[in-house]
């Protein structure tokens, strides 16, 4: 209740500031949570509320609502139409980042073996759908980020969040099981066939059945337009409850349910222009990141007896930001039809924030590990002692860097525009009036001429214009 009250008051202020500065609400929420947490004002301490179980369930609810919302808001049959690009972006990119980050963890923290490093890296593998929606779905990004990139990032963040389970489960099974054969067998049967395949199928069946039921109810006059929003959230909780009870991947189930509902576009038409869902989603996001700010274990960021020191954490964060996604996306983007050049690939590689999903997966991992002694007595306890310190530091850095990316690019674009006007005041009539921090992503390739309007006449630019000018000179 206290957290909800803070979230409501904070949301009102955040919306006003966000409209002017383009700074994501996740940054404000996290900073506000830190100020209210046990290390500053000590207004409330979530770690005193009952351990990691509360954190796990709060992150779960926020994630499933966000994933369901992404599934519903995607265009009809989007996942099928863009399956090739999504598979290329999700599976090899996640696997590459998982292995590379694990390698850096082993180098920086020698007390962790490679299997434990894989478990920690699995927590940092998924792209956070909540931060992605807050950044890519903002007003400035909606105006300047190409729509194909927005949708691909949203769909990818939702899909790879649920697929973090198999990456985590293989590392956990290898850590806790005595035999590698048993660990790999459980990973394949439980981690993939049951949790992922059954979870996705369950969500799709529930979502499709719900859609048909709503159609029948509407035709017979049993339900009105306003009731669709109520059923929207009821279905999220129902799908999550069923999936969790069966032990399958509830995140993928929620995303699949949202996709199944919007598959034919009927549900989207009924809830179009309804702002209630967006308001609730914003409220949950603000409350969640206030919680994350208060949850941050700052006292664990300098624990030399475990090999955790600030400089090691900073180096790890830089390695994660540079190597987790960008190299893989740059290598593979030619197989993704929705990405039209290396600059859009850089954008997709950069916007891979870590937040709610990383906190959720790391807390889930801790629930499967023993409570560590100090000093730890075995590798399982070493992993449990190091896990949240490493993950939470990277999450904190990601929230700040990714949350400030849009306003930073906006500021750079404004400075560049003003510099051009100062240097070439006579050519300002041919300059675009819109901010250009991502104009490269909206331009056609250099080999394809395009037109701009100058003085009421259409003139070719790019290579075609250069050829014309050279011809005239001749």
From TrEMBL:
UniProt KW keywords: Antiport, Ion transport, Membrane, Sodium, Sodium transport, Transmembrane, Transmembrane helix, Transport
Every Cation/H+ exchanger transmembrane domain range: 10-408
GO annotation (BP), single: regulation of membrane potential
GO molecular-function term, one example from the UniProt record: sodium:proton antiporter activity
Region spans: Disordered: 447-474
GO cellular component, as recorded: plasma membrane
Name this polypeptide is given: Cation/H+ exchanger
Species for this entry: Cristinia sonorae
Species classification: Eukaryota, Fungi, Dikarya, Basidiomycota, Agaricomycotina
């Amino acid at each position: 209740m206290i957290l909800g009250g803070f979230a409501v008051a904070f949301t009102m202020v955040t919306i006003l500031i966000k409209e002017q500065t383009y700074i994501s609400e996740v940054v404000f929420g996290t900073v506000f949570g830190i100020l209210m947490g046990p290390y500053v004002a000590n207004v409330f301490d979530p770690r005193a509320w009952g351990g990691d179980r509360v954190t796990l369930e709060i992150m779960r609810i926020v994630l499933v609502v966000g994933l369901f919302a992404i599934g519903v808001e995607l265009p009809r049959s989007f996942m099928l139409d863009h399956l090739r690009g999504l598979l290329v972006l999700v599976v090899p990119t996640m696997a590459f980042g998982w292995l590379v980050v694990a390698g850096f963890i082993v180098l920086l923290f020698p007390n962790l073996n490679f299997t434990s490093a894989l478990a920690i890296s699995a927590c940092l593998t998924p792209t956070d759908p909540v931060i992605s929606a807050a950044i890519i779905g903002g007003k400035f990004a909606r105006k300047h980020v190409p729509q194909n990139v927005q949708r691909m990032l949203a769909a990818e963040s939702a899909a790879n969040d649920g697929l973090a389970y198999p990456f985590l489960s293989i590392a956990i099974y290898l850590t806790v099981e005595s035999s590698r054969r048993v660990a790999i067998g459980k990973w394949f049967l439980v981690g993939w066939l049951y949790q992922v395949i059954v979870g996705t199928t369950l969500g799709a069946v529930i979502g499709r059945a719900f859609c048909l039921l709503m159609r029948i109810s509407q035709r017979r006059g049993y339900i009105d337009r306003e009731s669709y929003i109520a059923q929207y959230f009821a279905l999220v909780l129902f799908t999550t409850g069923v999936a969790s009870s069966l032990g399958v991947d509830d995140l993928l189930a929620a995303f699949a349910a949202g996709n199944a509902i919007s598959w034919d576009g009927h549900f989207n038409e009924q809830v179009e222009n309804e702002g209630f869902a967006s308001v609730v989603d914003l409220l949950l996001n603000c409350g969640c990141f206030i919680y994350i700010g208060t949850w941050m274990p700052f006292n664990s960021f300098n624990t030399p007896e475990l090999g955790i020191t600030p400089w090691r954490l900073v180096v790890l964060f830089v390695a994660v930001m540079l190597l987790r996604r960008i190299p893989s996306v740059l290598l593979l983007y030619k197989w993704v039809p929705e990405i039209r050049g290396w600059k859009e690939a850089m954008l997709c590689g950069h916007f891979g924030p870590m937040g709610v999903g990383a906190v959720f997966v790391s807390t889930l991992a801790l629930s499967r590990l023993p409570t560590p002694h100090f000093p730890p007595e075995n590798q399982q306890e070493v992993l449990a002692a190091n896990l949240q310190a490493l993950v939470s530091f990277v999450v904190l850095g990601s929230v700040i860097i990714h949350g400030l990316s849009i306003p930073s690019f906006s500021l750079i674009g404004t400075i560049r525009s003003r510099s051009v006007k100062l240097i070439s005041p006579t050519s300002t009539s041919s300059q675009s009036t819109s901010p250009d921090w991502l104009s490269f992503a909206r331009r056609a390739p250099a080999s394809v001429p395009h037109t701009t309007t100058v003085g009421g006449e259409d003139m070719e630019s790019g290579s075609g214009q250069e050829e014309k000018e050279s011809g005239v000179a001749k």
